[in-house]
Specification:
Layout: H1 2-13, H2 23-39, H3 42-57, H4 63-78, H5 84-92
Helix pairs in contact: 1-2, 1-3, 2-3, 2-4, 4-5
Length: about 100
């Protein structure tokens, strides 16, 4: 599990400028989650997902950012990495949640 946490942390460190297009980095985090979901126990994956949520929603404060986040979440949902509750939990952590 540590290798996946390190990978997510390394990606998040690159997310330093809110003006950058962060979609590629969010997709990279999603790819780590997809790999981890296949290998980790449910409990270990839940801990990893808890770490990944702040990285996924980092600098997600406008409608355009939220659409990009939803694109990533749709992919995770389609691959059964997250369920509808997980999808909603991640959305609720974004700054855009205030408009939902």
């Amino acid at each position: 599990m540590n290798q996946y946490m390190v990978q997510i942390a390394a990606i998040e460190v690159q997310m330093i400028d809110p003006e950058d297009d962060l979609l590629p980095m969010r997709k990279a985090i999603a790819n780590v989650l997809k790999k981890a979901h296949q290998k980790l126990s449910a409990g270990a994956f839940a801990k990893l997902l808890d770490q990944a949520i702040p990285a996924l929603v980092k600098y997600c404060g406008c409608a355009e950012d939220f659409e990009k986040l939803e694109h990533v979440l749709d992919d995770l949902y389609d691959h059964q990495v997250i369920d509808s509750k997980g999808y909603q939990d991640i959305e609720s952590h974004s700054a855009c949640n205030r408009w939902l």
